[in-house]
């Protein structure tokens, strides 16, 4: 019988701890598929964040390290500078990457550090139980914005891809989503490209994955995916925000 | 005999680190230790090493964490306020049991404090500036020569015990120049089967981690770590004794304070006062043994420090409060004069 689907080899057999309906499982699989497709598991070193994906070190079969909150790009930098022939990626959430770790993110991008960052944006702090994130939408109700995010009080959500793409440094900045099959397939390609860029020595590649958090959004998984389409994606449009190599090619 | 060269204390640290096989340095500028970064920036690219100026002390210590996790000899250096920022990373490094060398060329505090020499990070270094149950090996050089030799020793100890070695120097020793010689650096090599190198498909994945959500597992980890610390406490205390054979008063001082104290002791001896010095070279593990022994010999102790009295607590603990311990100190970047220490010795002699 033909095998039509199997778990990527780059994932371990450890059961994921994520909530029902959480897209982290899909995003883990996309990362693992890229690692499998490129045949790089044996030389890949992953950096787990602090947040819902904190235990990603148990799920990816490659060597793993658990970084301090927001510091994954710095930790990845240390690894990559010692092991330039290894493939180094971070897997980070919005609080980790865009709030406490913004400096590390921006400067790793500015240095065009030859690493791959998978940035999962679900507009909320999941692990701590649903507080306002740097990417929570205006008016979004969370535990720490119970009357809705008031932009006059606590500012506007940060568009990470748009911001990073203004820098000279990074090679590749793209935003994808995993709310439907078409977008998942597109996300798979972008994530693979982000790893290929590193293999080819092109430098800093970040893929923002617009995700959902049914538990803390207080929605069914189906409703949450619809909310991604209706509310998240208009504020965080899917697209390639920077692709230096493609731009160079086009200029020829 | 090895060639003698005139060097600044900070540069001696950098050169010694390179001789100890360190090829990766991550740092952020801060006075009075920036010569270390400058030296590394100049040298590393010429010898196939990496010097990287990070965006912050926080980033630099987390780069060190990542580098250390790959089993690579790595260091960073900073001064007091910068060490506060690095403390989070120091806790993670301790919790993940990876080796690193961290230099603190202390300046006055708290807060932004000043840029003059100080020893006011003694508590932070020996009691743990970061969170959680952990220790660092703390080495306190008192000369430019020791800046070099303790750096090499620090790397070896870090690898041996899988923990951070901190060089706790001060602005004086960092900035002053003395002739030193680099004996052939004795580099100890330890197997690092835990290191992140890529599985190559040949082994199960290695995980460097400090998270243990099950309390019994975390407790077990901490107990195991403290078993290792116990071996450090048994085997690694270092100290110098000076004129202690017949001493009736014991001065305790480390780093630059010990050099001031020695001048005062020579002057006091000329007045017929039997006084000696115990100089801790490792502040953790603290040299309890000689101090405990001294408590049965001398009538009192004087702790000479460039702070408001921090090591004095460990002197009292080590001597089990058998004899009075008085404090002779300056703070905020001021250094006690030999006369001030001599006065303290005279007062101790009078039993005051």
CATH architecture of the largest domain in chain B: 3-Layer(aba) Sandwich
Main beta-sheet annotation of chain B: 7 strands, mixed
CATH level-four homologous superfamily name of chain A: Thiamin diphosphate (ThDP)-binding fold, Pyr/PP domains
Question: How much strand of chain B?
Answer: 15-25%
Tell me about this structure.
- The complex is a heterodimer of chains A (252) and B (352).
- Chain A is globular.
- By secondary structure, chain A is of the alpha/beta class.
- The mean pLDDT of chain A is 97.
- Chain A is 40% helix and 15% strand.
- Chain A has one domain: 3-Layer(aba) Sandwich (Rossmann fold).
- Chain A has helices at residues 24-38, 56-59, 72-82, 94-100, 102-110, 151-154, 160-164, 181-199, 214-217, 221-235, 244-251, and strands at 44-48, 63-66, 87-93, 116-121, 172-177, 205-210, 239-243.
- A seven-stranded mixed beta sheet of chain A has the order 2-1-3-4-6-5-7, sandwiched between helices.
- Chain B is α/β, with parallel strands linked by helices.
- Chain B folds into two domains: 4-235, Rossmann fold, CATH 3.40.50; 240-349, Rossmann fold.
- Chain B is 41% helix and 20% strand.
- Chain B has twelve helices and 15 strands.
- Chain B has helices at residues 9-19, 34-43, 57-69, 80-96, 122-127, 144-161, 171-175, 215-235, 255-270, 288-295, 311-318, 338-349; strands spanning 4-8, 24-27, 50-53, 74-78, 100-106, 137-139, 164-170, 177-181, 207-208, 239-242, 249-252, 275-280, 282-284, 300-305, 325-329.
- In chain B, the strands form three sheets. In chain B, strands 3-2-4-5-7-6-13 form a seven-stranded mixed beta sheet, sandwiched between helices. Chain B has a five-stranded mixed beta sheet with strand order 10-12-11-14-15, sandwiched between helices. A two-stranded antiparallel ribbon of chain B has the order 1-8.
- In chain B, helix 1 packs parallel to helix 6, helix 3 (57-69) packs parallel to helix 4 (80-96) and helix 9 (255-270) packs across helix 12.
- The longest helix of chain B has 21 residues, at 215-235.
- Chain B is globular, with a radius of gyration of 20 Å.
């Amino acid at each position: 019988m033909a095998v039509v689907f199997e778990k990527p080899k780059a994932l371990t057999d450890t059961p994921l701890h994520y909530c029902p309906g959480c897209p982290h499982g899909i995003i883990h699989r996309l990362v693992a598929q890229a690692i499998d497709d490129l045949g790089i598991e044996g030389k890949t070193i992953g950096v787990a964040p602090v947040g819902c994906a904190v235990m990603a070190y148990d799920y990816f079969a490659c060597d793993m390290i658990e970084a301090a909150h927001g510091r994954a790009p710095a930790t990845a930098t240390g690894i990559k500078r010692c092991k330039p022939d290894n493939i180094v990626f971070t897997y980070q959430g919005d609080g980790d990457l865009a709030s406490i770790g913004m400096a590390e993110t921006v400067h790793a991008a500015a240095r065009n550090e030859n690493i791959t960052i998978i940035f999962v944006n679900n507009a909320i702090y999941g692990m701590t139980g649903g507080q306002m994130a740097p990417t929570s939408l205006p008016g979004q109700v969370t535990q720490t914005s119970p009357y809705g995010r008031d932009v006059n009080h606590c500012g506007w959500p940060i568009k990470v891809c748009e911001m990073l793409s203004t820098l000279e440094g990074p090679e590749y900045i793209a935003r994808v989503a995993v709310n439907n099959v078409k977008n998942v397939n597109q996300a798979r390609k972008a994530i693979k490209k982000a790893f290929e860029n590193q293999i080819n020595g092109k430098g800093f590649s970040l893929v923002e994955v617009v995700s959902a958090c049914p538990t803390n959004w207080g929605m069914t998984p189906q409703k949450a995916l619809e909310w991604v389409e209706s509310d998240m994606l208009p504020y965080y449009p899917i697209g390639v925000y920077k692709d230096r190599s493609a731009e160079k090619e086009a200029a020829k | 005999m090895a060639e003698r060269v005139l060097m600044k204390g900070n540069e001696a640290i950098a050169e010694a680190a390179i001789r100890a096989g360190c090829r990766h340095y991550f740092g952020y500028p801060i006075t009075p230790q920036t010569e270390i970064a400058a030296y590394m920036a100049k040298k590393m690219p010429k010898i196939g090493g990496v010097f990287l100026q990070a965006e912050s002390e926080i980033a630099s210590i987390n780069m060190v964490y990542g580098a250390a996790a790959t089993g690579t000899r790595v260091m960073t250096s900073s001064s007091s306020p910068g060490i506060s920022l690095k403390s989070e990373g120091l806790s993670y490094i301790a919790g993940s049991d990876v080796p690193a060398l961290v230099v603190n060329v202390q300046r006055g505090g708290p807060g932004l404090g000043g840029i003059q020499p100080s020893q006011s990070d003694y508590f932070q270094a020996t009691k743990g500036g970061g969170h959680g149950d952990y220790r660092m090996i703390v080495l306190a050089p008192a000369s430019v020569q020791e800046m070099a030799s303790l750096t090499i020793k620090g790397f070896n100890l870090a690898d041996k015990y899988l923990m951070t070695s901190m060089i706790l120097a001060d602005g004086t020793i960092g900035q002053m120049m003395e002739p030193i010689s680099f004996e052939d650096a004795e580099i100890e090599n330890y197997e690092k089967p835990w290191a992140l190198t890529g599985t190559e498909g040949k082994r199960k994945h290695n995980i460097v981690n400090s998270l243990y959500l099950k309390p019994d597992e975390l407790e077990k980890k901490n107990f195991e770590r403290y078993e290792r610390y116990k071996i450090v406490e048994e085997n690694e205390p270092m100290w110098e004794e000076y004129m202690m054979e017949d001493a009736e008063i014991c001065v305790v001082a480390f780093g630059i304070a010990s050099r001031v104290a020695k001048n005062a002791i020579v002057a006091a001896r000329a007045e017929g006062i039997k006084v000696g010095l115990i100089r801790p070279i490792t502040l953790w593990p603290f040299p309890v043994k000689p101090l405990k022994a001294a408590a049965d010999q001398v009538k009192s102790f004087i702790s000479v420090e460039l702070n408001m009295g921090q090591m004095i607590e460990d002197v009292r603990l080590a001597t089990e409060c058998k004899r009075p311990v008085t404090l002779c100190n300056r703070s905020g970047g001021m250094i006690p004069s030999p006369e001030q220490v001599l006065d303290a010795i005279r007062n101790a002699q009078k039993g005051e």
